[in-house]
Amino acid sequence: MFNEGLTITKASKAEWIGDTFHYNGSKDTIVIGGFAGFGGKHIPCKDIKEFKLIDEKSTAASKKKAVGTVGGALVGGLLTGGIGAVIGGMAGGNDIKKDLKIDMGFKLKSKDWFVGTLRLEDQKGFTGSAYKMVVEAIVKRFAVKETCPF
């Protein structure tokens, strides 16, 4: 299991590595460290010279829920005997878990830089959805807008 959330994994300043970070849309800042918007280093978004999505990986893995497996085995065993218990146990309780890892690079006007990483153990949950919305807001904020050539 890995830590979930937005974390700085590489940086020009060693003290930033391992810190959390978040985007404060109302103040248009990236906050390194701190807790719930208090403390930490506030970097105005206008001071971010470059932004890039470096890498995005998503993996799916099947996980079994013990209750579903036992329940499936009991129902299968009652209906069809021994072989039904085996098949019911195999079928019951399967769920697909999707891990997600996204790396984002930030380069500041001051020449400092950091790589922020989002890690989610299961992007289907409430926390996963919330973090994905934060990343979408960051990408939207720093997306390069080009005019259409036609």
Question: How would you explain this protein's 3D organization?
Answer:
The chain is an alpha+beta fold and 150 residues long. The chain has a domain of 99 residues: PH-domain like (Roll), CATH 2.30.29. Helix content is 28%, strand content 39%. It is built from three helices and seven strands. The strands form two sheets. A four-stranded antiparallel beta sheet has the order 1-7-6-5. Strands 2-3-4 form a three-stranded antiparallel beta sheet. β3 and β4 form a beta hairpin. α1 runs antiparallel to α2. About 20% of the residues have low confidence.
* Rough outline: globular
Number of helices: 3
Helix vs. strand class: alpha+beta
| Percent of residues in helices | 25-40%
Q: Which value, in Å, is the CA radius of gyration?
A: 22 Å
Strand arrangement across the biggest beta sheet: 1-7-6-5
> Strand-and-helix sequence, N→C?
EEEEEHHEEH
Low-pLDDT parts are: 62-79, 81-92
Number of strands: 7
Strand content: 35-45%
**Average pLDDT score:** 73
Specify the CATH architecture of one domain. Answer: Roll
Task: Determine the CATH topology of one domain.
Answer: PH-domain like
- Reading off the top of the CATH hierarchy, the class of one domain is best stated as Mainly Beta
Describe how the helices and strands are arranged.
Blueprint: E1 5-11, E2 21-24, E3 29-32, E4 41-44, E5 48-64, H1 66-80, H2 82-91, E6 94-108, E7 113-120, H3 126-142
